[in-house]
Amino acid sequence: MKKLSVLSALGILLFVCPRAGFTQQRQQPDEELKAMRREVEAIKESQTAIQKDLQEIKSLLRAKPAAQPAAQPLDIVLNVEGEPFKGDKTAKVVLVEFSDYQCSFCARYVRETLPQIETDYIKTGKLKYVFRDLPLESIHQYAFKAAEAASCAGEQGKFWEMHDRLYANQTALSPKDLAQYAQAIGLGVTKFQQCIDSGKYASSIRRDMAEAGNAGVTSTPSFLLGVVEGNSSKVRILKMLKGSKPFAAFKDAIDNTLSPQ
Predict the structure, then answer these.
(1) Long-range contacts of 173-176 (CB under 8 A, 24+ apart)
(2) Rg of the chain, C-alpha, whole Å
(3) pLDDT tens-digit series, residues 165-213
């Protein structure tokens, strides 16, 4: 009987242990499957970020220059009255920038090229520098509201302070962030927020966007260089420059406009 009992017990163990091992084997693949799913989600997020960058690059590539790009701007006349500007308001040579606050190429231009243009041409009174809005809403969800924020800051005399703050913080342009920047540069926050909430400058930004399209500007940053017509606020465009070009490209274009051959 004892031998039988021992054999029976062994039989039970042999029967139970393989099932426990089988359960453990099942649990292990489940954990591996969960880990694989997490990796797949991480890859999807990475692909989404890459696609966003590719969309921005494609928007620039679609704006291919015409066979004779220098000829097109000759028929363009822009009225820059009331637009934010730097430099001598009576300067005869004007550089108009169309830009997007969420565009990484625009931020690179502001960081690397604009300071030299400001030193050599704006502060010396040779050039009037005008800013126009061209938020690329299809790929930059916060760009339009950021443009409104800059205009609302301009109401309180701090357009360029907000302009610089927005480009320095492109990854944080939510409504909450905009209010924080307003406070940081010393704006009346309540007045600023009321301006933002009312959409007061939405129509003027849309007008900038329409004029950009009429001038053949489809990407950011883009620049129209020209001369003032008489004593008016109208600028006859002589040259278009597209993209975050180095200072040398702007120097050549501006110098040729200041001293035409």
Answers:
(1) 173/101, 173/102, 173/142, 173/143, 173/145, 173/146, 174/142, 175/145
(2) 30
(3) 999 999 999 999 999 999 999 999 999 999 999 999 999 999 999 999 9
